Write the structure tokens for this entry.
Amino acid sequence: MTDKNMTDILVSTRSSMPSLEEYTNEIKILWESHWLSNNGLLVQKFKQQMKDYLGVENLELLVNGHLSLETALAGMNLTGEVITTPFTFVSTTNAIVRNGLTPVFCDINRDDFNIDVDKIEALITDKTTAIVPVHIYGNPCDVKRIDEIAKKHNLKVVYDAAQAFGVTIDGESIVKYGDASIFSLHAAKVFHTIEGGAIIYKDKSLKDLYEGVPSYATIMDEDRDHIGFNAKMNEFQAAMGICNLRHVDDELDMRRAVYDRYKENFKDIEGIDMVPDKEGVVKSHPYLPVIVHSEKHGANRDEILEKLIEGNVYAGKYFAPLISETPYYKKRFGEQDLPNAKYVEANILALPIFSSMRLEDVDRTCKIIKETAKK
Ligand SMILES: *Cc1c(COP(=O)(O)O)cnc(C)c1O
């Protein structure tokens, strides 16, 4: 493969990294301390930086996003049914089920692919104890309405904010909503610690539990209701987080420039919808999802995907299939009536976006899509 071909290939995402020198500077002290895990100095430092950056008081760092969600849910002492979205990464549902809870799938909106708040109340039964919405693709759910519904019915709200780092509503981090939120800090996310996760929570009396359970909770008497396990963040992860946090605002700005270019291009392409921007919301663009309305555009999603791949642009059908349609969950929880989710699943396309993406590559991607439109 020639150099030219290499640069012409566009993948959906690309992990950001600090310079090698910056990272090695950060980890140097580990060769002096030999303190590599168990709430080491870099984890402590990174934790404080995260709290400051997000403007939150209660935050714990864990080894990954999935176990952050499992732990966050475990701390809420839930039973019975949990209302959630079928349009997500499988981790959301798995965390619910692995806590011994039954997921009740609520349909989604066609424009932002998040849980449809107008359909939540009809799913509430006397067994319901929580709502677990996902800010999918980093687009915020209707957090205010969800809060109202939860208060009215005395339900907990735990947000899977795995994809929503850097997203703010009226200048405040999105993780300030609900009883708890989790981030994934995986390498494929906008901001990462190679692997990693965080729980952000309101009730500070949960601190012992959220700190203790992911490190076996061996020292805690009051915590006998919960079985501990190992989900600690280590020092090398924290070092990557410290370095990446220095650059995250630049990273977000560069993504926003790529997003703006897409938006400009899509203005004159029929039948392709981006997620509409919302008043007061600043997004972080971990993905660039669009819906293909084939009856208006001419070509359908799969035809466009094929053309993009011919042009070395690797777009994806995230998140298909719906979690409720995966063989395991379908067998366990049955067929679900989710018309909007099914529409989105059939017509969604996630286009390449990463901070170092050249604007001419955005144009090239959009040109391929434009050429598939009916003349
Ligand atoms: C990435 C992701 C997770 C899991 O996070 P990991 O850090 O990979 O364990 C959970 N939920 C959603 C929506 C995600 O995108």
